[in-house]
Amino acid sequence: MAGKSPATNKITVSEAGKEIDRRLDQHDKYEFGGPFGVTCIMLGFPALMYYLWICLWFYDGQLVYPKSFADVNLFLAEMWAHVCEGASPSLYAWKVYGGNIIFQLFLAWVMPGYRQEGLPVPSLNYKTLIYNCNALYSLYATMITAAVLHCTNIFRLTEILDNFGHLMSVAMICGFATSFGVYFWAIATGSQIRMSGNFIYDVFMGAILNPRIGPIDLKMWAEVRIPWVIVFFLSVSGGCKQYETLGYVTPNMAFMILATWLYLNACAKAEECIPQTWDMYHEKWGFMVIFWNFAGVPFSYIYSIVYMARQDPSKYQFSTPTYVLLYTTLLAAYYIWDCSMSQKSRFKMQTQGLTNFRKTFPQVPWCIIENPTYIQTAHGNRLLTSGWWAYSRKPNYVADWIMSFCWGAVIGTATPIPYFYSVFFIVVLVHRVSRDFERCSVKYGKDWDRYCEVVPYKFIPGVF
Ligand code: NDP
């Protein structure tokens, strides 16, 4: 059945829908190549992050490799020496990284917030959890605190980039320790779901769906308050560094400060929309999410900043029209991303009977659809077919990927390393789409097929 407004009459999940949800909450097959695949990911990603950082830090962004098989041992010894020299988990790095974690936890605990009801959780008998969304006030408090620390010389923000390698190692250790710790916590409290029974696979995928301490939902807290805060302050650190050494901030660095602030601010200002995302209601809190939030995102998405902070601006200077194109592309992609995410999340809220929406800065035009069209599924849920969602089944992914590409393109062709984010991200998004569509196809059956007929394109309308 296709529907048109009002979307505000509350949905109820049918008995058949509940049966399907129960099935989807069971482990049925291994993903990511099973235990072997996830072990490779757990070992391979940290190694790759060290390698890319070494190339940027010690070799001016050039990809280094052994010239012959006989050189491999020497090459590995050199790599290890670089790690020992520039990426030891120093006490200072523990203080900086740990200080930020504790400060962000403290803010999440005490700052006033907007109370948002999450989606009904099948494994909790369709109970909804309450989220105290105070990321925005926490962000403002963090920005003010950072400015005070910098201006009073208590903690110069340039220190963040200067200690990049050391901080990255500490972040990785925290990512591993938290992943294993949370796994054992889930088992000890009996809060595990969708378990495979294979230890390493379950540590990777996670055991617990909604980890909470007091009023804090740890999964949502870690998704917003750690990676994007660090990414933004690394950009600010790069800006401060250029200002101190060059006397000005390049348009490229200013671009990254703007880009990372837009992303961080979007996550904070629309925090109440995050409970409606796949990460919150489906993905468990395991290594895949934890490591990526603690270490992967903050230390592998902004290689362009590391490059710019250590190289002469002549290596990455563009003409004025190129800067205009770069900034325009970023802002256009941001608009589509913010708007499409808001349209879907608010549509989902409407179907829960929520009609009062939070107004934070900036509210982009067309972010709430009046009289949306949708497909009413037999499951009970509705699939939006209006707004950006009329053109493609993943408009948000396309826009997000374009932003990631801009984060690399900001240094042009000076080094390939900052393109790591967009290359990695396209693999993540394509894999995520296949997992998501497979799940939706099981969940909605024929209604999903009908939705795919109404919205035939996965990504770019008219293309694919
Ligand atoms: P989506 O926001 O696309 O959510 C997918 C879910 O939404 C589906 O499982 C389905 O769930 C529901 N859905 C899909 N289509 C519709 C529709 N037309 N109407 C109503 N509900 C629909 O994806 P994610 O949660 O994966 O991503 C959210 C954002 O996070 C994206 O912008 C993504 O790019 C970003 N992201 C960023 C990462 C990064 O490292 N930078 C990593 C991962 C994500 P159901 O029907 O069961 O409710």
From TrEMBL:
Membrane-crossing segments per the record: 32-59, 96-114, 135-155, 167-186, 246-264, 284-306, 318-337, 401-430
UniProt keyword annotation of Lipid metabolism present: yes
An example Gene Ontology biological process: ergosterol biosynthetic process
GO MF term list: Delta24(24-1) sterol reductase activity
Entry's EC annotation: 1.3.1.71
Family matches, as InterPro entries: ERG24_DHCR-like, Sterol_reductase_CS
Membrane topology: Multi-pass membrane protein
Location relative to the cell: Endoplasmic reticulum membrane
GO cellular component: endoplasmic reticulum membrane
Pathway: Steroid metabolism; ergosterol biosynthesis
The family this protein is said to belong to: Belongs to the ERG4/ERG24 family.
Record field: catalytic activity: ergosterol + NADP(+) = ergosta-5,7,22,24(28)-tetraen-3beta-ol + NADPH + H(+)
Coiled coil region boundaries: none
Keywords for the protein's UniProt record, in alphabetical order: Endoplasmic reticulum, Lipid biosynthesis, Lipid metabolism, Membrane, NADP, Oxidoreductase, Steroid biosynthesis, Steroid metabolism, Sterol biosynthesis, Sterol metabolism, Transmembrane, Transmembrane helix
Chief subcellular location: endoplasmic reticulum
Name under which the protein is recorded: Delta(24(24(1)))-sterol reductase
A Pfam family: ERG4_ERG24
